[in-house]
Amino acid sequence: MLDGVPRTRAEIAHLTGLSRSTVSARVDELLRAGVLAPAGAAASSGGRPPARVAFNPVARVVVGIDLGATHGTVAVCDLAGGVLSAETIDLDIADGPQPVLTAVLGTAGSLLDGVGRPWADVAALGLGLPGPVEHVTGRPVNPPIMPGWDRVDVPALVQAELGLPDLTVLVDNDVNVLALGEHATWWAEADDLFYVKVSTGIGAGIVMGGTLQRGARGSAGDLGHVRVPWAADSPRPPEDERELEDIASGPAIAARLREAGVDARTSADVVAFVRAGDRTAIELVRQAGREVGAVLATVVNVLGPSVVVIGGTIGRAGEDLLAGVREVVYRHSLPLATERLQIVPARGDSNAGALGAAIMAARHALAPEAIASWLARED
Question: What radius of gyration do the chain's Cα atoms show?
Answer without folding.
Answer: 23
